[in-house]
Amino acid sequence: MVRGGRHKDRDGPERRCLATGERGGTAGLIRFVVGPDDTVVPDVAGKLPGRGIWVTAGRAELMTATKMRLFSRGAKRQVAVPEGLLDLVEGQLARRLVDRLGLCRKAGLVHNGFDTVKARLKEGPVRALIEASDGSEAQKQKLRPLSGVAARISCLSGAELGLAFGRDHVIHAALDAGGLTDQALAEAARLHGLRETGDTEPAPLLSEDDVRKGPGLRPAVKGKNTA
């Protein structure tokens, strides 16, 4: 696995990261285009018209692309980079993940609350364990051993999870398997890269079978996020 939760996959289209020069699938990359005013525009949904410029979903990679003026090289002309580009991208990715988790809730794939999640984990495997970045570490340690090889999402605050799940605040949740869950995992992988603090711990990765079916996650990030 490379940064941003990206796996090298030769079955799909390959793109080159502007900052690292690595080539691979588009999962874990962020697409940018140049607007009519020659300003760089993040295209986190990958749908805007224009020639795409791709950067790995990592804070270090985006900072390199910005400081080294690599966007102009990628665009083959002088372009402007908006102030606060990293924060802009992070905010857009957070909103996409919140939206995807909201769809998972509507599809009945979500279990939230410490006791509910604990009971669900005892019943059998889940696709992902969700932890609020500002939640109790002691409670997290009680649930993690029960989650087995489930992926772990830990890049949203309790307030952001509450927004996703229609509550004021959510600390613990779990996701059952499903197509919408895989979409949420893909968005979480990219957001983990942007909210990485360098203080990381090992987290269960998806199996090779899961890798072929859908994107996995980066190691979980400890500490409060900055959104």
Describe the structure.
By secondary structure, this protein is α+β, with helices and mostly antiparallel strands. It folds into two domains: about 5-85, YlxR-like (Hypothetical Cytosolic Protein, Chain: A, 2-Layer Sandwich); about 85-215, 60s Ribosomal Protein L30, Chain: A (2-Layer Sandwich), CATH 3.30.1330.30. The protein has helices at about 60-65, 70-75, 85-105, 115-125, 135-145, 160-165, 180-195, 210-215, and strands at about 15, 25, 30-35, 40-45, 55, 110, 130, 150-155, 170-175. The longest helix is centred in the middle third of the chain and has 22 residues, at about 85-105. The model is unreliable at about 195-225 (pLDDT under 50).
Could you tell me how far the N terminus lies from the C terminus, measured between alpha carbons in angstroms? 26 Å
Main sheet record: 4 strands, mixed
Query: How many strand units?
Result: 9
Q: DSSP strand (E) fraction? A: 5-15%
Report a brief summary of the structure:
The protein has 227 residues and is of the alpha+beta class.
List the helices and strands and how they pair.
Layout (H helix, E strand, L loop, with lengths): L14 E2 L6 E2 L4 E6 L5 E4 L9 E4 L2 H9 L2 H6 L9 H22 L3 E3 L1 H10 L4 E4 L5 H7 L7 E3 L4 H8 L6 E4 L3 H16 L13 H6 L14
Parallel strand pairs: 7-8
Antiparallel strand pairs: 1-2, 3-4, 3-5, 6-9, 7-9
Helix pairs in contact: 3-6, 3-7
